[in-house]
Amino acid sequence: GSAVVQLGETSVMVTAVSKTKPSPSQFMPLVVDYRQKAAAAGRIPTNYLRRELGTTDNEILTSRLIDRSIRPLFPAGYFYDTQVLCNLLAVDGVNDPDVLAINAASAALALSDIPWHGPIGAVRVGMVNGELLVNPTRAEMASSSLNLVVAGAPSSQVVMIEASAENVLQQDFCHAVKVGVKHTQQIIHAIQQMVREQKVTKRTPTKMFSVPTEMVEHVRRLSSERIYAVFTDYAHDKISRDEAINKVRLETEEELKEKFPQAEPFEVIESFNAVTKEIFRDLVLNEYRRCDGRELTALRKISCDVDLFKPLHGSALFQRGQTQVCEKHKANYIMCVLSGVPISSAVAGVAIGLISKANPDKPTEIEDYRLLTDILGIEDYLGDMDFKLAGTNKGITALQADVKIPGLPLKVVMEAIQQATVAKREILGIMNQCIAKPRERRKENGPVVENVRVPVSKRARFVGPGGYNLRKLQAQTGVTISQVDEETFSVFAPTPGAMNEAQDFIKEICKDDQDHQLEFGAVYTATITEIRDIGVMVKLYPNMSPVLLHNSQLDHKRIKHPSALGLEVGQEIQVKYFGRDPTDGRMRLSRKVLQSPAATVVKTLSEKQSITMGSSSIHRDGSDS
User: Fold this and answer.
1) What is the DSSP letter of 428?
2) pLDDT per residue over 28-48, tens digit each?
3) 3-state secondary structure of 132
4) With a threshold of 0.90, does the pTM exceed it?
5) Taking every annotated instance into account, which residue ranges of this chain make up the domain S1 motif (predicted)?
6) How far apart are CA 174 and CA 414, in angstroms?
7) CATH 3.30.1370.10, applies to 448-510
8) For the chain, how long is the longest CA-to-CA vector?
9) How far is CA 69 from CA 101, 152, 402, 406, in A?
10) CA 102 to chain CA mean position, Å
């Protein structure tokens, strides 16, 4: 199937294809490839080869967005290679193409003969000044405090949610989800109308994988009690529980191979997995018991500690259950607080899981369900949802929901948000007991940034020939220096000690032995330190950077080299001070103004402008008389 979806001047084409023979792999081999080529914007790629190269991060994230929206609606056991290729045909810079790609993929699959329980619809919801906007433009999103992408299925069910927000209140966020789902139904109805017009008929797969009933019953008789005993033994931790289940698995599989010698290896494995999943889910649904003994809404044991490593700007250890995360000066909340970064409020995250029971008459509807707070890995693997929410005590900052069933009722989504909010506040309380606010004072080894003023007249000395002094300063102290303006340099030091060392270095370079207040127009004695082709380098006082006295300022006579005046290194000469050049701050000196002007010979001719020689005279016009 194929479809082209357009919004404004942005167009996306999606093609979907699936093989007619099943794949040997025992999972749904779905490939979603979204490509955003430069030609869609009327441009040539700006890389060296002027060619489209590998996929970008944005293309990968958009592909995942599409995959997570359409994957839950494929039939269980449909293990056929399927590809969904999305090409951006044109982009106007106003409307984002990612949501269009989801809708185009939905239309392409719905119009194809590929078995798929769609269609779905997707919209983006923004919030500007408290007002919700559906499919806002890029300009509107720049000022939006919410970026919510929601994919909905028929009957106002939710398939996928992804959102980032600027501390949006829970009630506003829930309202945005409801508005988004409502607008997805319009897209779904439009696709359904096209399907009816095209009279699409879905093909019947030649083979759908299902676990053999006889093998499942045999596993129940052999191992159900032992599996139940493992899941109800709360003395187990993650590792010991996995080891116990694997021990039962190996013993059961050996007996299955003897009982069913013709069975495929994956049938043996899936038979045991089916019974394990059934027992695990029944414990939650019927007995309200989790495999680690917690209540459905209880968190694992949480502990956190800070300042584990003193030399670092910040370090923290956060442990939940058997999972530990050690951070060293990265962008999570605790690390920013430890480093003195003025974070406005604490941020925490939690994952909510789902164990559901489908309606036997309508498999797409949920008959019963249980929401689980702070899910384990096994609860994610054997469950129906991974609903991750992050935020502050005030509101929500991020949310991502991965769903394995064809859709969630809005009621379940709202309950998941509420349950996650309660758990999030409990986690924040534990974190605030550890460290409640950013440090008012930085650690002794914290980074420091200061501005240093270097007069223009001393900039050459500060930088050094070819930047030698700057490189030396950075190599010795570890600081980084960047120029702000003509007289100001920004110095970034990893520690206050490095900053002090850098400041001492700069003062030593730029300081003078004595503070000379030179007077404009005054005459001073200068010492020649170097003779060059274009002039001489002189000093007015010790520890002063030599100043060039150009040939044009040495004497009234035009000379090509200072040696023409008999000047030598070490010789003292008188110069006049004329201040500093306003552009580069260099000292302006002159010796020429102190020299007597050269005598000029003026010859005055007679009135007749002639010179008499003997008895003859020669006029200026050359005639003789």
Assistant:
1) H
2) 899 999 998 888 877 887 777
3) strand
4) no
5) 521-592
6) 7
7) yes
8) 155
9) 11, 8, 9, 10
10) 23
